[in-house]
Write a structure and sequence with these properties.
It contains twelve helices and five strands. The protein is of the alpha/beta class and about 220 residues long. α5 packs across α6, α5 packs across α7 and α9 runs antiparallel to α12.
Length: about 220
Amino acid sequence: MSGTVLDNDVLLKTAAWSLAAEVPAVLKDRGGPSVLAVTAIVVSRQLQRSKRIVNKDAAAAALSAMLASCLCLEPTKEEMELAAGLETFAQERGVPLDSGESLIAAVAASRASASLLTGDKRAIEALEDVSNALGLTAQLAGKVVCLEQLMASIGLLRHPVELQTLVCAEVGVDGAMGMAFRCRSKAEVDAEALFEALRSYIDYLRSRAPMLLLPGYFI
């Protein structure tokens, strides 16, 4: 099993929100969380350089715990070649798909048991376009999970007000999530209101990536 491959964006945001225990719990039925071998080094550096994370010590501890729970994947030569092709094609089409997202997508497309979880909405849209053009849709169909689906699933494990406290303490890492959790108004969010907010983002993404996005609202 290759599990669900997390991108740097998801790792940084969920670490900032101290969700190191919840992420693997949500992903346990999808083979558990996994990361690419290079990710641990890169994402740790990104965390220390980040100007958006307030409590870097807590985030670093959560990131360390999360990485310890992840299966470490080493991309094959064929997967790296596919990733390079995806990135190059995306650049030619002028859509935002960077090297990291391309490599995760290549792994997910190449391994039947792998899926990917990204916090980059634009990358999801780009991947839908690129995979369709390159004939990879069947290999990635329903295997792309967005951050909002992850948070909706975590919302089934944690009280919404507890999650609101965690997210709003680090609202700078994701503006859309801050809106979903009503961080600006500081009004308590209930489960129904939170799900409605997350559902609106998921529905939008599904309209942009109908073939690749994981069906439903929960993982």
